[in-house]
Amino acid sequence: MFSLFFRGLATGSIYSLTAMGIVLILSTTNVMNFSQGDMGMFLAFIALILLMAKIPYPVTIIIIILMGIFLGFLLEKGLMSKVRKTSHIGMVMITLALTMIFEGIVGIFVKTPTLFPPAISGGPIIFGTIIMDRQDLLSLAISLIVVIILFLALYRTKIGIASRSLAEDEYAAKLLGIPVKNIYIFIWAIAFGLAGLAGIMVAPRLSLEPTFMLVIQLKAFIAAVLGGMNSVLGAVVGGLLLGVVENFVSFYIPQIKDSFSLILVVLVLLFLPQGLFGKRETRRA
Amino acid sequence: MLKIQSLCTGYGPIEVLHEVTLEAKSAEVVSILGSNGAGKSTLLKTISGILTPTKGSISLEDIIINGLEPSRIVKIGVVHVPEGRHIFPGLTVKDNLLLGGYFRDTEDNKKNMEFVMSTFPILKDRLKERAGMLSGGEQQMLALGRGLMGNPKLLLLDEPSLGLAPKITSEIFQIILDLAKQKEMGVLLVEQNAKKALEISDRGYVLINGRIALNGSSDELKNNPEVQKLYLGGKNV
Q1: What digits encode the pLDDT tens for the residues B180-211?
Q2: ipTM of the complex, rounded to two decimals
Q3: Which residues in A have their CB inside 8 Å of a CB on B?
Q4: Which candidate from B72, B80, B103 shows the least CB-CB separation from A175?
Q5: pTM
Q6: What is the number of other CB atoms lying within 10 angstroms of the CB of residue A275?
Q7: Residue A3 and residue A129: Cα distance in Å, rounded?
Q8: Is A207 left (phi over 0), alpha (psi -120 to 50) or beta?
Q9: Residues of A in contact with B45 (CB under 8 A)
């Protein structure tokens, strides 16, 4: 029982990391970011190269996160800021294009699913009837730390509070003289940093191939919908919840294992369209 | 302090303001009167840099500010408190205020925060609450306080009385007047409530279809038969 729950949490933490990236981008820049998952895939691929070059695992993780941050900066500075004024849908198309570019690049080198080394080896940890995989434990712990850091950044730092204000009312933020362009860079950098972390955490479980993050991206969308699409907390809770429920369902009713999350999204949109933590679309003026 | 010369602005091909020339001194409250669609809000949006003028110039203390980014204009000292308040409902009152001083350093923010607290004591007890929970009048005070955190030389106020009870409106207008005199701040006040606006302002401009149709001291405007008929509800009032 608890093993199922724990395994679900571990999977869910990856959904959460990815969903947070999607929600941050959507709520501040109004762009549906389709490249969140594949950015993670690409960075996991880079991580594999680094690991094969005998660079220690912890260092690799840090390099990958920094690289994600840098790519986020590059994307906003080089592309998004240029397109923003002329075409909103153009920005969404760029994120779609990125998925193709990343899958294309990695596809040149990775023809068959490639095993990805886990961050910590060794057998599972067993407490009586509870079995916990070490990699699961690690990804859960790291996700937790990252979520805490992210929340401190969003709620305690000047730029974090400004990002939240931008998500609430862009016009007012502009009037107050908040440097909107820098905030966009900040948010893309965070989102892609999260993507890198999610990629390297999940790769050992799924083995690396160009499309291995697509499922995660889809699940993260569902987690984000579950959480309300514009709430970072919602994304975290939505991801964990989805991971746990999905794991129980696939154990007890394996027939609907794959379709379950899609059924869930339909139900959520039908009965709880603003999600668990989302704000209603209509607000008091 | 503020000098606007033959300013033209519009949205795309449609010109809204035609050759507007206007002036405001420090410690002076200047009303902009006019009916819906006369271009009052457009004027404020152009001054604060949300819209870029097609012609003319805007300067603050001889610094040309037209064409600058809104964030630069705020730094120079023009703060725009928009129509409908536009506070951040999900953020705490304190965070709302601090964002108003985004550019100021911690030291300045501390000082300005104290000043805002003494001007609007109501906000002091509610610093930790989410701004969306405040009443309409409190939200307007928060919007004003947030603007003051930027320590402006010129404050642009767009319909501060919108949706407020008459008593609260009077209270807020009195505070605006005091602020202008006390901080030697220029105030450009856009109002539907012409009577109250003229009561606290030194001078006024009347905008009709994007042009300045009349200007003068508040007393002159109050006694102008045209203004009385159009904006003050006729002679009986």
Answers
A1: 999 999 999 999 889 999 999 999 999 999 99
A2: 0.90
A3: 158, 161-162, 164-165, 168-169, 171-180, 279, 283-285
A4: B80
A5: 0.89
A6: 22
A7: 8
A8: left
A9: none
